[in-house]
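Figure-free illustration: sequence to structure, shown twice.
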Amino acid sequence: MLLAVFSDIHGNRQAFEACLKVARARGAEQFVLLGDFVGYGADPEWAVDTAMELVAQGAVAVRGNHDQAIHSTAETMNTEAQIAIEWTRGRLDTAQRRFLAELPMQVEDDGRLFVHAEASHPQRWQYVRSTVDAAKSLIATQAHVTFCGHIHRPALYSMSVTAKMTSFVPKTDVPVQLLRGRQWLAVLGSVGQPRDGDPSAAFALFDTVSSQITYCRAPYDIETAASRIRDNGLPHWLADRLSQGR
């Protein structure tokens, strides 16, 4: 089965639509959504409704920290992010809020673990910035491959049976074989707000038979997404950063 794995959609309708279109054109058979459906972007209702539809059709979805912030004031964020969350709370209806609140923190399926931030303490929302961070996540699970997001920058880590770590930034559209005998941590880039210098929306395809992962990019209408942010009175920095990929 070919999985399309998305993370950090952040209410960016134009980016989410572009990724869905590209993934379907490339033969995706199931979708995995690694959380943060809301926050930053100006179309949270559409993003959550689309996620709900995908889940109803068999997609896997987990909770992100921005999703949790909708119903928990204990989550602390920077000023721009907090403004966006408070604005988003006023946009979502009861069913949409319930969907976000009831999302699991992680899902394990046939040797694959799906989580928003990392596996050692999912609800602490820690970033995977280094091999040390990746090792903590990998040690916490027996899964062959863990998929996560949160940091908005793609990376791929592995750990051998002797705990030797490797890491690299995968190239777009170059398949990588996730060999047996190692554990892997696939860190997804962001659909809705990439921060790796490339403004194109990011996602990945994973073939469950061959264990190959391919990191993908989808160009989208950034100006419309940015205009939607500005027109709704959200901080302009949230719009400006989209074209910069940071």
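We now fold a second protein in the same way, so the two outputs can be compared directly.
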Amino acid sequence: MADSIRVVIVDDHSIFRSGLRADLDASVDVVGEAADVPSAIAVIGETQPDVVLLDVHLPGGSGDDAAGGESVIRGCQPSATRFLALSVSDAAADVVRVIRAGARGYITKGSSGAEVSRAVHAVADGDAVFSPRLAGFVLDAFGAVAGETATATDELDRLSAREQEVMRLIARGYAYKEVAAELFISIKTVETHVSSVLRKLQLSSRHELTAWASERRLL
């Protein structure tokens, strides 16, 4: 199908992966599967899917990312692929942790195949998707209050209009060449703008930039 979404399913239970693959709409094309962090990073790198359906608890995580899901997201950056967490857990800590790592949404495994398919399309289109009971965790964690909105405005004032455009695209996971094509500028100019953005916002990497933009609801 012309408008099909290419998806990789990452979950350590093969029966769940098989069942989910069977339940997804025909508009969702599953191009790969993985059961742990290393194989997930490899499959995503090889297939370059539009969306990854990602369990938050996976074998192979380490250090601060011991749960595993965050390791997959960080291990695949920079990338235009978007990540949708799909987990049995509805714990606030799991939700917040994977969103901070860069996931565009979080839904529970109680969702139907049709609901997951709709969420995949929404995330592929750039929207954020959360199961209703989880949305409150995200709003609380990322400070949807007037004071933080004002702070974000002050910080954005440090950036030029072009830097703000570059910042949003990079934070959304666009590669430098994709930003260059989107804004009709050279890759070298993109690199210059990114360096300036990181310096002005006192950030050290694009991972921190994504977390910064997510916390301020700028994506």
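Summary for the second example: Residues 144-150 have pLDDT under 50 and may be disordered.
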